[in-house]
Amino acid sequence: MRSVTFLDRFRPSCGLTSSHTLVLLGIGFLCLPSSCPADPGAAPPTAASKAEVKHPAAARRANRLARETSPYLLLHAHNPVDWYAWSPEVFEKARKEGKPIFLSIGYSSCHWCHVMERLVFENEDIARIMNANFINVKVDREERPDVDDIYMTAYLVYAQAAGSGDSGGWPLSMFLTPDGKPFAGGTYFPPQDRASQMGFTTVLSRVSNAWQSDHAGVLKSADLICDEVRRLTRAGFNPAPVKLNRELVTATVKSLIESRDPEFGGIDFDSHEPNATKFPEPAKLGLLEFAARQSNNTQSNNQQADAVVTNTLDHIAAGGIVDQLAGGFHRYSTDRRWHVPHFEKMLYDQAQLAELFADVYHRTGKREYRRVAEQAFGFVLREMADPAGGFISSLDAQTDGVEGVYYVWTPAEVDAVLGARDGRLFRRAFGLDEPKEFEPGFVLRRTASAETLGHDLHA
């Protein structure tokens, strides 16, 4: 039996108009996404973040989430927030007390979810505000993808109406009416206001004030968002046959080629924001690889597709987005050059990128691509295969509250393991002799060829 009928009510209706947008803006757009997961422009936290880690969990009584099995929900089991898991009880309590619901959705390997847990949900003052004014609900998106899908769609509708251009992300922070209709939200919020973003304390105050002072407006906004989500999620079927033609593929390939970063590889590149973060986008690169293999393609298109794919794979293979020691791929790059990644590892990234590298190896014969693919397959079998069967979906990357510190090295650590002579070669090979770009240590990336190292060895 489904726990909440709201999921069933998200079905067809109308779209948003400019007058509707004004209603939505009545309580203000609550997320300025400069450092949200949806816009992961901020580099991973530095060692200074350790000073912010205050986790008195062992001394605090457990909340309701201690009864759950989800690793993500259990992470919050000692927060001072009076959390509920997703259940009918949540909506019954909200209706009885006349309070809005705060819904927080994330997953166990999500970096910004961990940050918000530490800095916001562990904060006693913030928890008191949440407990007094809201019914607070935690959802693991890997346990309840249905709930996540509905409310992420609702957030995108809300963000578009507010003119933010935000593309979503986790943690997802949504405010709902007692019957589950979303009326405002954001992604990651810091505890207090800062130059680029509204703090969660301010957000809670604004939402609570709107709920009390403009209740009818809030309900109207919720209805408008629901109508649009119904329209977007409506199941549709068009029985008319669609004629397939190569022009559509050719146009798509051309568009991808035009979006390339000509210097460091990658696609969806914006020259107006050259230092924005980069995702590998293996599905799009796979289409370019398909184009590069087609003998009936134009020579120009064939060569351009090949150039984009190989340039991108060359830079990824040499960069810090690849785990140069253990194999496998980190999530994405925080810089244009693929040097410093967000370090979590996702199973689907390993699958798609390893397949792409293998495919391009078969076409080009470039052994570096084979090496990267084989190391990724080996990493998955070694570290992400569950002995009980199946595979682990993702690996967290935080150690002592700092993301990525497990993967980075100092010159002294390298020399202690390898000795002075081999340590010198290793530092030359993996960039430890160059300026450090990540405060906790050096992210390993290939900075010298085998030929150069051979010359150094015999110098």
Provide a descriptive summary of the structure in words.
- 45% of the residues lie in helices and 8% in strands.
- The chain has 459 residues and is an alpha+beta fold.
- The strands form 4 sheets. It has a 5-stranded mixed beta sheet, sandwiched between helices. Strands 6-7 form a two-stranded antiparallel ribbon.
- Mean pLDDT is 85; it is low at 1-54.
Give a brief rundown of this model:
This protein has 459 residues and is of the alpha+beta class. The chain has 16 helices and 11 strands. The chain has helices at residues 6-9, 18-24, 71-75, 88-97, 111-121, 124-133, 145-161, 200-213, 215-233, 246-258, 282-293, 299-318, 347-364, 367-384, 411-430, 450-457; strands spanning 83-85, 101-106, 135-140, 172-176, 182-186, 332-333, 341-342, 345-346, 394-395, 398-399, 402-403.
Topology, element by element:
Layout: H1 6-9, H2 18-24, H3 71-75, E1 83-85, H4 88-97, E2 101-106, H5 111-121, H6 124-133, E3 135-140, H7 145-161, E4 172-176, E5 182-186, H8 200-213, H9 215-233, H10 246-258, H11 282-293, H12 299-318, E6 332-333, E7 341-342, E8 345-346, H13 347-364, H14 367-384, E9 394-395, E10 398-399, E11 402-403, H15 411-430, H16 450-457
Parallel strand pairs: 1-3, 2-3
Antiparallel strand pairs: 2-4, 4-5, 6-7, 8-9, 10-11
The Cα radius of gyration reads 24 Å
Order of helices and strands: HHHEHEHHEHEEHHHHHEEEHHEEEHH
Q: What structural class is derived from the secondary structure elements?
A: alpha+beta
Binned strand content? 5-15%
**Strand elements, count:** 11
Describe the biggest sheet? Answer: 5 strands, mixed
- Low-confidence residue ranges: 1-54
**Overall pLDDT, averaged?**
85
Biggest sheet: strands side by side, in what order? 1-3-2-4-5
Q: What distance lies between the first and last C-alpha atoms, to the nearest angstrom? A: 73 Å
SS field, number of helical segments = 16
Q: Tell me, briefly, the overall form.
A: globular
Proportion of helical residues: 40-55%
